[in-house]
Amino acid sequence: MKAYVYGANGAAVADVARPSPKGTQVLVRVRACGLNRADLGMTKGHVHGAAGGVGTVLGMEWAGEIAELGPDAKGVGVGDRVMGSGAAAFAEYALADHRRLFHIPAKANMSFEDAATLPVALTTMHNAVVANGALQPGQTVLIQGASSGVGLMALQIARLKGAKTVIGSSTDATRRGRLKDFGADLAVDSSDPGWVDQVLKATNGEGVDLIVDQISGKVANQNLAATKIKGRIVNVGRLGGTHGDFNFDLHAARRIHYIGVTFRTRSIEEIREIFDEVRKDIWGAVESRKLQLPIDKVFAFDDIGKAFEHMEANRHLGKIVVTL
């Protein structure tokens, strides 16, 4: 089968053996895949958790049809239209745990391309905003890096859960102008030293109850200053750097709960629970298309290298999708 593989000379489309499902796995005939920032790093040889390196089939999320069941797979059947996440997504066939996937809503008029935009964003940001961020109706929230696919989903989930004020950040003026379409009341430029003052002004000088941070690095101390006393910061991504200065005194003075999250160190049982929580809590909004992501551009699988060039140019809003 065709797959996008990182090899000795970089990432390229290659022929690899078709996998077979074991235990609770299912084999999916992939029809569309969503690109993510972690994928971009792995195309350059970086490691993402246990994934990466020479011989790795790349990719993290997909949509397609179940082609074969492992002997212990439950709740799914051959031919089911599904979307999910896991390793080796950029291929004609991919393996998935039977509970690390969602059925594509039958009545939602949802294409495989639309479905492929959702698994990572839904699970990452429900876990960050609701499970770890503990956002309550009437509270205020800032999404750092809000113009990414997962960032746009975070804005929408915050609005769905009753946030009083939703703030999003982007360093691009055009994308900042679009954030209100996805639930933001205010858009700030995290590269502008005055953004903290803008957040404080919007929250009567108190700061936000919750920051979902995809930037980290240089904004760490600004985040502390923009968070309310006894507020929360959930660290999801580190697009601005994995290291930076941290004002421990300000952190203590404001009694901020600082929480780090990642899928890289989670067990399959923990990931199953996250998928279950999405189904229980917000799946109705997915079925009604209240929660959805824009597709910036669709590429054919043979042009997947161009899709990553488009991502690296960093001018897109929403998701980049490849189809097979």
UniProtKB/TrEMBL annotation:
Coiled-coil ranges per UniProt: none
Pfam families cross-referenced by the UniProt entry: ADH_N, ADH_zinc_N
Ranges where the Enoyl reductase (ER) domain occurs: 7-322
InterPro entries hit by this protein: ADH-like_C (IPR013149), ADH-like_N (IPR013154), ER (IPR020843), GroES-like_sf (IPR011032), NAD(P)-bd_dom_sf (IPR036291), Zinc-ADH_QOR/CCCR (IPR051603)
Name recorded for this polypeptide: Zinc-binding dehydrogenase
Keyword hit for 4Fe-4S: no
Alphabetized GO MF terms: oxidoreductase activity
Keyword NADP applies: yes
Keywords: NADP
Gene3D superfamilies in UniProt: Medium-chain alcohol dehydrogenases, catalytic domain, NAD(P)-binding Rossmann-like Domain
